[in-house]
Write a structure and sequence with these properties.
CATH superfamily of the largest domain: Reverse transcriptase/Diguanylate cyclase domain
CATH class of the largest domain: Alpha Beta
Structural class: alpha+beta
Distance between the termini: 115 Å
Shape: flat
Largest sheet: 6 strands, mixed
Number of strands: 18
Length: about 700
């Protein structure tokens, strides 16, 4: 039952007040003694200041000035004239100061001391006169006499202050005695306080704290829901009794509250654990757009402060907070004002790039519950995957997939009269860069080439890397051939400029094939095929150039491909021929050797030009086989000639060391000797001159 709380019982208060009054009395007594001693001390110090202590400062100044007086006179015979004049001025000033201070220090004997100092000052002046006239020996003697007189004067003057100091010592002894008396009185009062106030206060405090600690312990156990505790001092009639009875009432009410809220607490814990551990944000609002509940993920996602996560916070306040944080896709409200309930899902985007997906479910009776999921990383991964699927990973340019998509879109715009051009590019001498400097340098070169290509095109044009050193450009809104021709010229000039990669100066070029839509085709495959034909033509006529597609290029390509197949069959069937051009010596007037010349007689076209045959074999990768066949047959033929006849053979080889070993093997097999090495203009490979005397050496020309 509730207990009526009245005024505090006076018993504990009386004890505390009495202890406090006794303590204050002792403090006042100590203060009185201390003040009395302080007044006596002030009077004593005043007498000391008016007596000998007042003389100590002038005496000390006289002693210091006499020391400077003596040193100036002692150094005068040794000073220069300029320094002597300055020191003499200082000396006279010191004389005046000492004369003024003697009257304050000497008392009754001031006149006698003044006469003695006047004699010392005159001796010092004489030293300065002698030093000025430069009889140095006499000046030093006079300075010594002055030093003796000054040394006797200072102690006499200091002795004048001894008696006043002895008089004041008596005063100080009296102060010391009074201080001892005051200290004794203070110790006596402190002892009384320790013996009376200390134990009494300690016992009272210990008793009060013990009782208070018992009640506090009971409260702590009640706070921990320990309802088995007994409340002490419930029957007491003082303040602690009243406090104990109040705690007993609190205990009874706590037991009742715990019994009623146990089930609610358990359900609340389960619900809180479920809400705060789901990986998405959750918020619930009532029909009046006031917050009912939200979880930790929701607060973290929108950086909501603690005060805004409390029950009853208005939805508009939370929305304004999100707006200040950078949300720029506005979230609509429930009801007729913004119609939020009409949209079951939406997205909230921030200027920093964060994207949050929100799905809503209306509640019966009004209000809604929302789930908030941060899909920023998911969206970034999707965009990254999409970008990687449509762009080159090395250069960042469009890849073949995106190029084909843009090409199809450009073809669709043809119906609206928007023509375009396709430029196929191939880098010249890029393979040599990879072979000599390595693929990392080659990759860096491709990146720089990509940047230069982007610098050549207009906004809206597309630059793509199709693979290796192959690039392509879609130039939009082309009305006449001069536009792609101008672009091709810029690209050739840009790529032809020197590159600098890791202190390696690099020069390459590019060959370009150009097709115009719809003139050269209205579908992607045909445009790319025609662009490749134009590129082939530009590379065959000379690297670092560009060429437009022409209809006859297709016919030439078909003829070239037919010729390539015929060459492969001729090599397999060994229908190639070797002709031997004689080498005539004018001195001996006879034939001394032959040069082996490769010839191919086509069954339909007749004799194919050697340079065309070699070019086709090189493009097809058959040049090494052609060279081996030539070397083998020429060596076999030369083995049947007279010993004085030599043979010269032109052999193509990419690996000079392997070619040398092959030549040596064939020459040894047929009993030939490599007599001399030389190069032939326009030929790329190894030139061998041999006779029938055995193998010697070979030579490689790059």
């Amino acid at each position: 039952m509730p207990v009526r709380l009245g005024l505090p019982s006076p018993r504990i208060a009386t004890k505390l007040y009495a202890t406090l009054a006794l303590f204050m009395a002792m403090v006042c007594a100590l203060a009185f003694v201390t003040l009395e001693f302080a007044g006596s001390t002030q009077a004593t110090i005043g007498r000391l200041r008016a007596g000998p202590l007042a003389q100590l400062s002038p005496t000390a100044r006289v002693i210091v000035l006499m020391d400077r007086h003596r040193r100036l006179v002692a150094t005068a015979p040794l000073d220069t004239l300029e320094l002597l004049e300055r020191n003499e001025t200082t000396y006279r000033d010191i004389n005046r100061q000492i004369a003024d201070l003697i009257g304050e220090v000497a008392g009754q004997r001031a006149q006698a001391h003044a006469r003695n100092f006047a004699l010392i000052a005159s001796q010092g002046g004489a030293v300065f006169d002698l030093a000025r006239n430069r009889p140095r020996d006499q000046a030093l003697i006079a300075a010594a006499r002055h030093a003796d007189a000054a040394a006797r004067f200072a102690p006499e003057l200091a002795a004048e202050t001894d008696q006043p100091l002895r008089d004041q010592a008596t005063v100080l002894d009296d102060v010391l005695s009074r201080a001892g008396s005051v200290a004794s009185q203070a110790w006596l009062m402190a002892g009384i306080s320790a013996l009376l106030i200390g134990p009494l206060g300690f016992l009272l405090l210990f008793s009060s704290l013990s009782r208070l600690n018992g009640i506090a312990s009971a409260l702590n156990r009640l706070a921990r829901n320990d309802i088995s505790i007994d409340i002490p001092d419930v029957a007491a009639q003082d303040e602690f009794g009243q406090l104990a009875r109040s705690v007993a009432v609190f205990k009874a009410r706590s037991i009742d509250l715990l019994n009623r809220n146990a089930d609610f607490e358990r359900l609340n814990l389960q619900l809180d654990a479920a809400i705060n551990n789901i990986p998405v944000g959750l918020s619930m609002f009532d029909a009046h757009e006031r917050l009912l509940v939200c979880n930790r993920r929701y607060a973290e996602m929108y950086d909501v402060p603690t005060e805004l996560t409390r029950r009853g916070t208005a939805h508009c306040v939370l929305w304004e907070h999100r707006t200040k944080r950078g949300a720029y896709h506005s979230e609509t409200r429930i009801g007729s004002t913004r119609g939020e309930s009409a949209s079951p899902s939406m997205q909230i985007e921030y200027g920093s790039g964060r994207i949050i997906s929100v799905s809503r479910q209306p509640l019966k009776g009004g209000g809604w519950v929302s789930l908030h999921e941060d899909i920023t990383e998911r969206r970034r991964h999707e965009e990254k995957i999409t970008h990687l699927a449509r762009h080159d990973s090395l250069t960042g340019l469009a890849n073949r997939v995106l190029f084909c998509e843009q090409l199809e879109q450009s073809l669709q715009r043809l119906m609206r009269g928007q023509g375009f051009a396709v430029l196929c590019l191939d880098l010249d001498h890029f393979k040599a860069v990879n072979d000599t400097l390595g693929h990392p340098i080659g990759d860096a070169l491709l990146k720089q080439v990509s940047r230069r290509l982007l610098g050549c095109v207009r906004h809206g044009d597309l630059v793509a890397r199709l693979g290796g050193d192959e690039f392509a450009i879609i130039q939009t809104n082309v009305r006449d051939p001069s536009q792609p021709e101008s672009l091709a010229a810029r690209v050739v000039e840009a790529i032809g400029a020197p590159f600098q990669i890791d202190d390696n100066p690099i020069r390459i070029g590019t060959s370009i094939g150009i097709t115009l839509a719809p003139r050269d085709g209205a579908d992607a495959d045909k445009l790319m095929k025609n662009a490749d034909l134009a590129l082939y033509r530009s590379k065959s006529t000379g690297r670092g150039a560009y060429a437009f597609f022409k209809t006859e290029m297709d016919e030439q390509l078909q003829s070239r491909r037919s010729l390539e197949g015929d060459l492969r069959r001729a090599l397999a069937e060994e229908t190639l021929e070797l002709l031997y051009q004689p080498v005539f010596c004018l001195e001996s007037d006879r034939v001394v050797g032959f040069e082996a010349l490769l010839r191919w007689e086509h069954p339909e076209r007749g004799i194919v030009a050697p340079e065309e045959c070699i070019a086709i074999a090189e493009e097809m990768g058959l040049i090494a086989e052609v060279g081996e066949w030539t070397l083998l047959n020429a060596c076999a033929q030369a083995a049947r000639w007279p010993e004085h006849c030599k043979i010269a053979i032109n052999v193509f080889a990419t690996d000079s060391e392997a070619a040398h070993r092959q030549i040596e093997a064939h020459c040894r097999e047929h009993g030939l000797r490599c007599a001399r090495c030389h190069t032939t203009a326009g030929f790329r490979g190894i030139v061998v001159e041999a006779d029938a005397s055995g193998l010697s050496n070979s030579h490689h020309r790059s």
